Amino acid sequence: MDEQFEISDNTAEGRFEARIDGALAGVAQYLRAPGVLAVTHTEVEPAYEGRGVGGALAHHILESAQEAGEKVAPVCPFVANWIRRHPDYQPLVYEKQQDSVGPPGDRFGASGQLRDD
Q1: What is the per-residue pLDDT across 63-72, written as a single tens digit (0 to 9) for each?
Q2: Would you say 73 and 29 are in contact if contact means Cβ atoms under 8 Å apart?
Q3: Quick one: which of 83, 105, 104 has its CA closest to 92?
Q4: DSSP type of residue 92
Q5: Chain-centroid distance, C-alpha 94
Q6: Cα–Cα distance between 51 and 5 in angstroms, integer?
Q7: Per-residue pLDDT tens over the stretch 96-113
Q8: In a 10 Å sphere around its CB, with 0-12 CB exposed, 13-18 middle and 19+ buried, how is residue 45 labelled?
Q9: Burial of 90: CB neighbours in 10 Å, binned 0-12, 13-18, 19+
């Protein structure tokens, strides 16, 4: 079955939304910093599972990041696995600089924005 997904970036909610016939089928939540989009969670509504919603979201996010010249930090295991299965997108993966100070969890400031320090 070839589904037609309508995917949009709901910046107010910090998520990409996939809709099928106007109904919300799935979301991919993110945090944004200059040049980096951290995808933190992907969720598909139970009624739409197994129909390619998550893959469509991952593909759209990566294509959008590529067009915008951004890197993607795949915090979400689903998106990380999707990229592993589609290695053409590997160059878009954000590589954390090893000389950063502070614990790994300290990359997000109090505002919830990914810090780039």
Answers
A1: 999 999 999 9
A2: no
A3: 83
A4: G
A5: 12
A6: 10
A7: 765 544 444 445 554 455
A8: middle
A9: exposed
Phi-psi region of 21 (alpha: psi -120 to 50; beta: other; left: phi over 0): left
Contact indicator for 78, 58 with CB cutoff of 8 Å: yes
**End-to-end C-alpha distance for the chain, whole angstroms:** 46
Are 61 and 28 contacting, i.e. CB atoms less than 8 angstroms apart?
yes
Residue 34 neighbours by CB under 8 Å, 6+ apart = 116
pTM: 0.79
Q: What are the DSSP calls for 58-88, one per residue?
A: HHHHHHHHHHHT-EEEE-SHHHHHHHHH-GG
